[in-house]
Amino acid sequence: MAATIRDIAEKAGCGVATVSSYLNGGNVRPANRTRIESAIEELHYTVNETARMLKTDRTRMIGAVIPELDSTFCAQVLSEIEDVLRKHGYAMLVCDCRSDAGREKEAVDFLMNRRVDGLFVIPADSSGEDLVDFQKSGKPLVLIDRQIDSVECSSVCVDNRRAIHSAVDLLTAKGHRKIGMIAGPQTNNAARQRLRGFEQACEDHGIPAEDRFVYYGDDSIRSGTEGLRTLLEQSPDTTAVIASNYQMTMGVVIGVNEMGISVPERLSLIGFDNPQFARAVHPKLTIVSQPVQAIGERAAEIMLRKLDRDANGTGPGTPGISGGRDVAEHIWLETEIIEGHSVKTLP
Predict the structure, then answer these.
(1) Beta pairing partners, 269
(2) pTM confidence score
(3) How far out from the chain centre does Cα 43 lie?
(4) What is the pLDDT of residue 47?
(5) Which has the closest alpha carbon to 81: 68, 66, 96?
(6) 44 burial class (0-12, 13-18, 19+ CB within 10 angstroms)?
(7) 180 and 213 in contact (C-beta within 8 Å)?
């Protein structure tokens, strides 16, 4: 006969309520947790997920909608989130929307129909219209990497404006004044902030803002290569280029190889993200590095806090708690520049 919660409680020397709390991801004292886990292993106890879902109206599944599954940034952040959630008994269901607003709406609807308990989104649609129905459900929603002005929910982002500003600071400190920027699509909040950082830094350093030094890409490897070629064709006097995300950084590196450009002798480069890729490039690439581990961990922590409040009756729609509404948490993390050998000091 299969073991029951009461069997686990008796074996562990705990109350049934304590075992139930552990199985549902609640807070349990470390000593009790150890005894419960030992009893579960000894009695070969398995959770009846269907019965638990019917009883608690929770699936213990968290949805995630991302713009590109092959994005190193997305993959690393999701990996960190999954590590945290798994320790608390949650699994993830991930949908790739291919940076398409229509696919993003379909993905959100799909996950709602699968009754996920919460949702992480790295938005492709800057309007936020695809998130309206999910927000009405009252379940936790956490945006990652970018915010949407019309959507009031928690978010975890880096200071994108400061990230690019610091890259320009480094280049100007080494004598560069003709600096090109390969920007992302301006429908993307993070890309807009990075461009603003570039513009503000140029202004702060007395560098004239000229359109010929900005190329608007689409966050793809191809647009990084095309962006580099375009910038150098329309502005041959460019001495340095900043690529504002990882895919476009790869595209720029491909471009300098195909065009036979010597780095940093002819052109200095600053990329974005993935320190391992930066080390693999010759010469070692100087990059703006995002704290992907911290982004994933903080996003997961916010989600777990909100799920815990919902389970304890202190979440969205609960009278007396922030007027019955969940309070949005906004976390801003700092980037850092990891210097390689791709930036030349000009005389």
Answers:
(1) 241
(2) 0.80
(3) 39
(4) 65
(5) 66
(6) exposed
(7) yes
